[in-house]
Amino acid sequence: MSSTASGKNGTWRNWGGNVCARPARQVAPASVEELAAAIRRAREDGLKVKPVGTGHSFTSIAATDGVLIRPHLLTGIRSVDRESMTVTVEAGTPLKRLNAALAREGLSLANMGDIMEQTVSGAVSTGTHGTGRESGSIAAQIRGLELVTADGSVLTCSAKENPEVFAAARIGLGALGVVTAITFAVEPLFLLTAREEPMPLDRVLAEFDQLWAENEHFEFYWFPHTGSTNTKRNNRSAGPERPVGRLAGWFEDEFLSNGVFQAIQWAGRTAPASVPAIARISSKALSARTYTDIPYKVFTSPRRVRFVEMEYAVPRAALVETLRELRTMVDRSGLRVSFPVEVRTAPADDITLSTASGRDSAYIAVHMFRGTPYQGYFTAAERILTAHEGRPHWGKVHTRDAEYFASAYPRFGEFTALRDRLDPDRLFQNDYLRRVLGA
């Protein structure tokens, strides 16, 4: 079994282990034609349809008791166009395979998230993003899309062709059709220099605007119960390549960030009272380091410690105040939080339901170790994040509904009207979409 989350007896489970479903049947089409036929057959049988990637979403966005479409046979690069600097890739291709294939061609995406296990269609459909001053989410790098709609027809869209579908379908939540291919803008392979260093939280917050402005990609991790953060600045570099040494890489990325971190999480789950003391040690475990490598080796890192996550985008100008409120809440609450809080940014984009739609955004992600009760912490955090007009990541835990989104997204009605047109009978409906988009 690959990283695709699944279970026995036809039960499907997500990566975080917090969502499971029992579809009536699972289909793995090997071509767009087979996919269209599977959709038409589901319709005739009165079954709902949901495509699923690797199950990296913490919401039930892919769960169904109807037909579960597995895209793992729809993989690979269809074409590379060096004149327009685009690459068209099959929807089920994992990001790690896309990144490696592009690098072999001397090409790269401009920006990406920190995990590359997901399928390209799953990543873009939920709004997966990294951090960037000028470069946005993975979906913001899309130049064309192909999807099979509810009647089994194949629809292609771009800024010129079906532009109203293109505006919405780049982050379509699986509500408009099943994505079969994506055309991304790419650029010649480049080098990034990463500078990672610990920094006091008070300094990061005081200098945040400057740190954001001076770096192409800035992010930081704050360790609750401490005043410590680990910061990461990624900037383009003329070289030379200086990758992380094999032993150092194993020690920092595998031993400390995965092995020791896993043990710390187990200890914290067993003895919650020890969490603040453990957090102080954890926050000092990673030392400063600088390295230069090709983009995907800098942007992404292995994540083997399983967790549950909630992430909200707030207006970038509201970040510092929001984080101060979060720190105060944790300090006063008696909560024991053993996972760092991750902070990233994205420029405004023009995608209808993008968390950065129409506004420069900052992302605040809270995590809990898988199997630890997370509701108390997430509820308290969500109260703060929504008070700052936060928009939750579509693939991460949240409790918002269509009424909230209608006020959080100025173009929400544009999306639901398009859904009425493309899927009037709600073939792609499930409980999650009913909640977030309305019936």
Features of this protein?
globular, five-stranded antiparallel β-sheet, 24% strand, eight-stranded antiparallel β-sheet
Give a written overview of the molecule.
The protein is of the alpha+beta class. The chain has helices at 32-44, 95-104, 120-125, 163-169, 201-206, 208-214, 246-270, 275-282, 295-299, 319-333, 375-387, 402-408, 412-422, 431-437; strands spanning 12-13, 20-21, 25-27, 49-51, 67-69, 77-81, 86-90, 107-108, 142-148, 154-158, 178-185, 187-188, 191-200, 217-222, 228-237, 289-293, 307-315, 341-346, 361-369, 391-392. Strands 16-13-15-14-18-19-17-20 form an eight-stranded antiparallel beta sheet. It has a five-stranded antiparallel beta sheet with strand order 6-7-11-9-10. Helix 10 (319-333) runs antiparallel to helix 11 and helix 12 packs across helix 14 (431-437). The protein is globular. The mean pLDDT is 92.
Topology at a glance:
Layout: E1 12-13, E2 20-21, E3 25-27, H1 32-44, E4 49-51, E5 67-69, E6 77-81, E7 86-90, H2 95-104, E8 107-108, H3 120-125, E9 142-148, E10 154-158, H4 163-169, E11 178-185, E12 187-188, E13 191-200, H5 201-206, H6 208-214, E14 217-222, E15 228-237, H7 246-270, H8 275-282, E16 289-293, H9 295-299, E17 307-315, H10 319-333, E18 341-346, E19 361-369, H11 375-387, E20 391-392, H12 402-408, H13 412-422, H14 431-437
Helix pairs in contact: 10-11, 12-14
Protein structure class: alpha+beta
Across the major sheet, the strand order is 16-13-15-14-18-19-17-20
Oligomer: single chain
Calculate the terminal CA-CA distance, rounded to whole Å. Answer: 35 Å
Low-confidence stretches: none
Total of helices: 14
Q: How much of the sequence is in beta strands?
A: 15-25%
Radius of gyration (CA) equals 21 Å
Overall shape: globular
Roughly what percent helix? 25-40%
- For the secondary structure, the number of strands is 20
The chain-level mean pLDDT equals 92
Instruction: Report the biggest beta sheet as strand number plus sense, adding barrel if it closes.
Output: 8 strands, antiparallel
